[in-house]
Design goal:
The protein is α/β, with parallel strands linked by helices and 257 residues long. It contains eleven helices and ten strands. Helix 1 (28-43) runs parallel beside helix 3 (79-92) and helix 9 (201-214) runs antiparallel to helix 10. 38% of the residues are buried.
Length: 257
């Protein structure tokens, strides 16, 4: 059964979690299909990804019912191992990623929004690091991702309370980049996806990597890293095209390399 729907159009890959009757909970099958979708996107050379859900949820996180039924089964696939591998693959995927948060995003579902580069929220979106309700800490990267977005104090408060953060508050705290209206959610997502897919993909990837690594560097080291990254693109099509377009005062067409 297909629990993940994918579509590729104009080099934008849309990955839609499709278990609405289970609030798009992340079962072992969903994790495997999600991983397979990323492989297909790589094969089709998509230049932007949109991750979203079907129905009233983005994702409720781990499929707790499945988890509880297999926790004492040594032969059952390890949900954590699959989820961790998927999180790394998604976080490191080399194109910009948009989380189109159409509804509730709890636990691991929340963490996959955090691993996205841009978060666009419908007014009904709700975020929660809900793990504490199961008497465990976050287990799919939330303790690393969330403080980098909202700061350590706010991240800790969200994590140890497991409280729900509505879309409006999420926007105020910087957890959400764009909060849309009821009627312009998907058009806004599509516009952002087109813009990113038409951009200089290699430069976007390097810029993202530089930002992610900057907190561990001093200014001199950060500028040295920037210099190496910039130099690596001097002979790229997109850099040459951008320079020519500036000189010739015309529009620019990026190919992503």
């Amino acid at each position: 059964m297909a629990f993940v729907d994918i579509e590729v159009k104009d080099q934008v890959g849309v990955l839609r979690l499709n278990r609405p009757e289970r609030l798009n909970a992340l079962s072992v099958d969903v994790l495997r299909q999600f991983q397979g979708a990323l492989a297909r996107f790589r094969d089709q050379e998509v230049r932007a990804i949109v991750l979203t859900g079907t129905g009233r949820a983005f994702s409720a996180g781990a499929d707790v019912k499945e988890w509880a039924s297999t926790v004492n089964d040594p032969d059952a696939p390890s949900w954590a191992d699959l989820a961790h591998a998927l999180m790394v693959a998604y976080y490191e995927f080399p194109v910009p990623k948009i989380a189109a948060v159409n509804g509730l995003a709890y636990g691991a579902g929340c963490d996959f929004t955090l691993a996205s580069d841009i978060r666009i929220a419908h007014p009904r979106a709700v975020f929660s690091e809900a793990y504490i309700r199961l008497a465990i800490p976050p287990d799919v990267g939330g303790t690393w991702l969330l403080p980098r977005i909202v700061g350590e104090a706010r991240a800790l408060e969200m994590i140890i309370t497991g409280r729900e953060v509505a879309a409006q508050e999420a926007a105020r705290m910087g957890l959400v980049h764009v909060l849309t209206g009821e009627d312009d959610f998907w058009p806004t997502v599509e516009e952002w996806a087109r813009r990113l897919a038409q951009g200089p993909t290699a430069a976007i990837r390097l810029a993202r990597d530089l930002v992610r690594g900057s907190s561990a560097l001093g200014l001199r080291a950060a500028m040295a890293a920037e210099g190496r990254a910039t130099e690596s693109l001097h002979d790229s099509h997109d850099h040459r095209e951008a320079l020519a377009a500036q000189v010739e005062k015309r529009g620019v067409t990026f190919l992503g390399h």
